[in-house]
Design brief:
Layout: H1 9-22, H2 26-37, H3 43-53, H4 59-78
Amino acid sequence: MTLSVRLDPVIEAKMEEETKRLGITKSQLVKDALELRLGLKNPYDILRQVRRDRPMGNPVASESASTEFKVRLRAKHSD
């Protein structure tokens, strides 16, 4: 089935950003949203699929941020 929907420019821009971030098409984003809203899809399954298709985050950045936070916290509490 083909469906045409008029979107507010703000929603359209956010949709563009989200599809680029997730690496999916606009059609897939709309289908996922409808399936979620209609109770046909589990949010955990969607997240698992997105993470399987494309790794999320930068593990090296996370490790260095964690280390830096610990150093600052220890320095603050050692005074």
